[in-house]
């Protein structure tokens, strides 16, 4: 499965199948959440939140690709990500794009 954030794939012609998406709601361990609260007082990277978001993005992307594969797609173009806070220490990541089938 080819995944790109452009609306084209160099050298390939394709037809659009439809929109695909993958979502993930991820949280951090309660103890890490408390430690991050203290970290905001002194500044610096909140590494457990960075790891949480990276994992959520990877899972959302995988789910989007699986959605495209189920539709018979060869690729997903114009991929975008959105995120929102659900509660303290938890976030939703949405990956979405357009599933396409190559034309030979």
Q: What is the count of helical runs?
A: 2
Shape: elongated
Q: Which residues sit in consecutive blocks of at least 5 with pLDDT less than 50?
A: none
Q: What portion of the residues fall into strands of 2 or more residues?
A: 35-45%
Helix vs. strand class: alpha+beta
Mean pLDDT: 85
Enumerate the strands of the largest sheet in spatial order, edge to edge or round the barrel: 1-3-4-2
Assign the CATH superfamily: Hypothetical protein apc22750. Chain B
Helix content: 25-40%
| Number of strand elements | 4
Please tell me the total number of domains: 1
How far from one another are the termini?
Answer: 16 Å
Radius of gyration: 17 Å
What pattern of helices and strands is seen along the backbone?
EEHHEE
Say what the CATH topology is.
Translation Initiation Factor IF3
Q: From the 3D coordinates, which CATH architecture would you assign? A: 2-Layer Sandwich
Largest sheet: 4 strands, mixed
CATH classification, class level:
Alpha Beta
How would you portray this structure in words?
Helix content is 36%, strand content 42%. The chain has 2 helices and 4 strands. It has one domain: 2-Layer Sandwich (Translation Initiation Factor IF3). The protein has helices at residues 30-42, 47-70, and strands at 2-3, 13-27, 75-87, 90-103. The chain has a 4-stranded mixed beta sheet. It is of the alpha+beta class and 104 residues long.
């Amino acid at each position: 499965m080819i995944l790109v954030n452009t609306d084209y794939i160099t050298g390939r012609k394709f037809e659009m199948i439809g929109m695909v998406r993958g979502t993930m709601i991820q949280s951090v361990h309660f103890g890490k959440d408390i430690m991050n609260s203290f970290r905001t007082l002194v500044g610096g990277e909140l590494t457990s939140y960075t790891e949480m978001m990276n994992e959520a993005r990877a899972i959302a992307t995988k789910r989007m690709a699986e959605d495209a594969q189920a539709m018979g797609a060869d690729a997903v173009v114009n991929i975008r990500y959105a995120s929102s806070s659900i509660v303290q220490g938890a976030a939703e990541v949405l990956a979405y794009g357009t599933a396409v089938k190559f034309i030979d």
